[in-house]
Design goal:
The protein is an alpha/beta fold and 858 residues long. It is built from 25 helices and 40 strands. It is 27% helix and 15% strand.
Length: 858
């Protein structure tokens, strides 16, 4: 999210391009890196309830600038709700069949309206938009019963700029175009008719739109197999034409492009992606485009395995060339040479099969942006993505280099030589585990560096020498790199004195020190979310002098507010007042007198007004005890005076004064002993049972060994399992008890006597069984009873080692077990004992092996 906000840097530094380039290609830069998240559409916390008139349920953002109404079964009419100053209304997934005149009259203040995904909508009455004169964006998409638009459907939308009609049931373009007449939609500049089944466009299809201001026309995925050469001649203002993934042949495209030139239509962007071109771009079309005003050419999702020097003619106007996902395995050295593409500034080659960057592969002297991400190579290429020495020696104008999602394992001090003017380097989601000393030194003007999702610390720690030369770096992203700590004696952040954004989310940091942060005097955003941070005792930000305006500490292991934390919060809040953002959600705050009373009293005596206000308004939630779970910490602190915390404090002080230290120690010891005896009473009874069995072992070992060899067991095996694995156990019973040699299993649901204590029954059954079978699954690891049975089984194996000739413990693993649920005993058993793994494919072999193990020592 933060990354996307800084993508404007690329365009800002496009000093060789005009303002139109900066405007037109902003969407490209946003899509290459993390796209901006529409927070309003994702967060709808306010429930507006059900509209009684229509049956629709509605939710909104906290500011009510976005309202979404829905209802798969109840919502049969267009909702009539009071939306106040709402900017955008979305009505989706309803059973509305038609929208009639008057249904929308009350929404006259809307700027955007979306009527999407309504499977029964088939009619839009003319005049329904008569009162929406302020509407600028309208989407009526994914309504699979809507097949026709009447001529006056959009009357009243005098300010409408964007009309989206994607994936409806329109089949004849001539039937709906009259609804787009310029006297009806005088401000329309974008029309998206993608994913409708038009098949062909005849000569007079767009005749009703003669004189329209339309600049962008989208006809993607429309099954078009014919476009009349003169079909677009009436759209004089057209700047962008998107006809991606249709069935048009090269001559048809050539003919209508030729007629558009003759009609004086100056296209700036042409999308020919996914058109089925093979081997090389159609030379005749490329020569045609070379003589037009087209600046952006999209040829993605075609198939050009080898991009040679002769695939493109001289193209003097092309500034952006999109060759993503064209199956390219090699690029000739002069394919994009400045002599052929003098104005080329953005080259997109992501999603191909390029095995690396060879000095003879690509020429990018004139480029500002080069995207080589997601190149997986081929089966015959090397395992890792390789970058040759000196590849970027002549790329001095390059501002943005994207190498994300490539299997780059290491980079050295010669890798980026020549990129002295690079501003953004993206290497996220790779396999990078080695950074050579001085690797980033050639990029002295680098401002954004993304190394997220790389195993950087798998083999070495991060050092200052690796990041030398990043004096102008503004943003560093080290998300999910396995970082456990930073070395204060060799502080890498001393190389980045101008850093403003530091993203360290999803690592393994337990703490962060004052010395680590001290060099970052200009830090504004610090993201430490999804780590293992605990409450810090000494102030960090106050001591280091660092004052970020955004501090993200979500999803850590913070259990309480220490005095050092409170001092830091007070320091940040007093500096920036209400503008600072401190997020502590999803931590493990314990809301009891012991953890919160001292902080509460400190706040009452020393806390500033702004700090008190922060706690009062914060949504930080308690995680325990149960009575306060998922309730606000602020509510607990405000109720402290009513919770006997004062009595608790006075009582504790008085007892310390009255009782002597020996008395306290004695009482505490007795309480601990009583608690341990009560808690582990079942285990103690079992240990006593084992002690009786082991008594006198040294005197009768030989006799005992002989007796054990001849001991008659009631069961061949005791089966320990969780209820989730009941079906597997039933299959085991069928395989082992119903077929030779007819083994006898102890199953608690069948064999335990009614009325006996469960613990006694388990102890008796284990002692009466020759083997103990543990069926280990994720549910088994979660179950408290199964864990207890595992302990008993292990103790039985260890303490009864009295000459028994076989190991009674048999492990069966039925699926993947999450590591967080494994106890120490289970981990030890799985690492030290050979276990059987259940698979459907080899079930017969599995039962045969298990039957042999149980019969072997019978």
């Amino acid at each position: 999210m933060v990354f996307a906000r800084y993508l404007w840097l690329l365009l800002y530094y496009a000093q060789y391009a005009g303002t139109q380039l900066m405007k037109d290609y902003e969407d490209i830069t946003l899509s290459i890196l993390s796209p901006p998240v529409d927070e309003a559409s994702l967060a709808l916390p306010f429930n507006m309830g059900q509209d009684r008139t229509s049956g629709c349920f509605c939710r909104s953002t906290s500011r009510k600038d976005l309202v979404v109404c829905f209802g798969n079964y109840e919502c049969a009419k267009f909702p009539k709700i009071n939306i106040g100053v709402c900017d955008t209304l979305v009505v989706r997934t309803t059973v509305i069949s038609q929208i009639t005149v008057g249904d929308l009259d009350q929404y006259f203040g809307l700027r955007a309206l979306k009527i999407d995904g309504n499977s029964r909508l088939h009619t839009l009455q003319p005049g329904i938009f008569r009162n929406l004169s302020n509407l600028e964006e309208l989407s009526v998409s994914y309504n699979t019963q809507l097949h026709y638009l009447q001529t006056h459907t959009f009357t009243g939308l005098v300010k409408l700029k964007s009309l989206i009609l994607v994936n409806n049931r329109f089949e004849k373009l001539t039937e709906i175009v009259p609804a787009f007449k310029p006297n009806t939609l005088p401000s329309l500049t974008l029309l998206d008719l993608s994913e409708n089944n038009f098949e062909n466009i005849n000569e007079n299809t767009f005749l009703p739109m003669n004189g329209s201001k339309l600049e962008i026309l989208n006809l993607n995925l429309c099954r078009l197999d014919y476009i009349h050469p003169n079909s677009f001649s009436k759209l004089k203002k057209l700047k962008e034409l998107h006809i991606r993934e249709n069935d048009l042949n090269a001559p048809s495209i050539y003919n209508f492009l030729l007629k558009m030139i003759d009609s004086g239509i100056n296209l700036g962007y042409l999308d020919l992606s996914g058109m089925g071109f093979r081997k090389q771009p159609p030379m005749k079309i490329m020569e045609m485009i070379a003589n037009t005003t087209i600046r952006r050419l999209n040829l993605a999702d075609n198939q050009f395995e080898l991009i040679t020097d002769d695939d493109f003619p001289y193209m003097p106007n092309i500034e952006v060339l999109d060759l993503r996902r064209v199956f390219a395995i090699a690029v000739s050295p002069y394919a994009f040479n400045p002599d052929r593409f003098p104005k080329l500034r953005i080259l997109l080659l992501s999603g191909n099969n390029l095995p690396g960057i060879n000095i003879y592969h690509i020429s990018c002297q004139q480029l500002l942006l080069l995207d080589l991400s997601s190149n997986k190579g081929t089966s015959s290429s090397s395992l890792y993505y390789e970058i040759d020495r000196g590849v970027f020696s002549f790329c001095r104008d390059l501002r943005f280099l994207n190498l994300a999602y490539n299997r780059i394992k290491h980079i050295y001090n010669y890798t980026f030589i020549g990129l002295e003017n690079l501003r953004i380097l993206n290497m996220e989601n790779g396999t990078l585990f080695h950074i050579g000393l001085g690797t980033f030194k050639p990029m002295k003007h680098l401002e954004i560096l993304n190394l997220g999702n790389n195993p950087l610390v798998s083999s070495e720690n991060l050092t200052s020498s690796q990041f030398e030369g990043l004096n102008e770096l503004k943003m560093l992203i080290l998300r999910n790199c396995g970082i456990k700590r930073f070395n204060d004696d060799d502080n890498m952040f001393e190389m980045m004195p101008n850093l403003t954004h530091l993203i360290l989310t999803n690592n393994q940091l337990f703490y962060i020190t004052v010395e680590t942060l001290k060099p970052l005097k200009f830090l504004k955003v610090l993201d430490l979310s999804q780590n293992l941070l605990v409450s810090w005792w000494q102030p960090i930000f106050l001591a280091s002098g660092i004052q970020p305006t955004k501090l993200y500490l979500m999803n850590n292991k913070i259990s309480h507010f220490s005095l050092g934390m409170i001092q830091d919060l007070n320091y940040l809040l007093e500096k920036y007042n209400a503008s600072v953002e401190i997020d502590l959600m999803d931590n493990l705050f314990i809301c009891d007198c012991n953890s919160m009373y001292k902080i509460y009293t400190w706040l009452q005596v020393n806390g500033s007004d702004i700090l008190k206000k922060y706690f009062a308004k914060s949504n930080i939630l308690c995680s325990s005890p149960d009575v306060w779970e998922d309730r606000r910490v602020a509510d607990f602190m405000s109720s402290i005076k009513n919770l006997r915390c004062f009595v608790y404090q006075k009582f504790s002080t008085a007892m310390l004064l009255v009782w002597t230290a020996p008395s306290l120690v004695t009482i505490a010891f007795l309480l601990i002993v009583i608690f341990l005896i009560y808690r582990y009473r079942i285990y103690i009874r079992y240990w006593l049972f084992l002690a009786k069995v082991a008594l006198g072992r040294s005197f009768i070992r030989r006799t005992l060994k002989a007796d054990n060899l001849n001991k008659a067991y009631k069961y061949d095996a005791f089966v320990s399992y969780c209820n989730d694995d009941r079906e597997f156990v039933l299959e085991m019973i069928s395989q082992l008890e119903s077929q030779p040699p007819y083994l006898k299993l102890c199953i608690y649901e069948r064999d335990f006597e009614i009325g006996t204590f469960i613990s006694e029954a388990i102890l008796r059954s284990i002692n009466e069984s020759r083997h103990i079978i543990l069926i280990i699954s994720n549910g088994f690891a979660k179950s408290q009873w199964c864990r207890w049975e595992t302990h008993l089984a292990e103790y039985h194996r260890l303490f009864l080692d009295d000459g028994t000739p076989h190991d009674p413990l048999v492990l069966i693993k039925t699926g993947e077990v999450e590591n967080k649920y494994l106890t120490t005993t289970l981990k030890y058993l799985l690492k030290t004992k050979i276990y059987h793994s259940w698979t459907e494919q080899n079930s017969d072999d599995f039962w045969k092996k298990l039957r042999n193990v149980l019969v072997k020592n019978k």
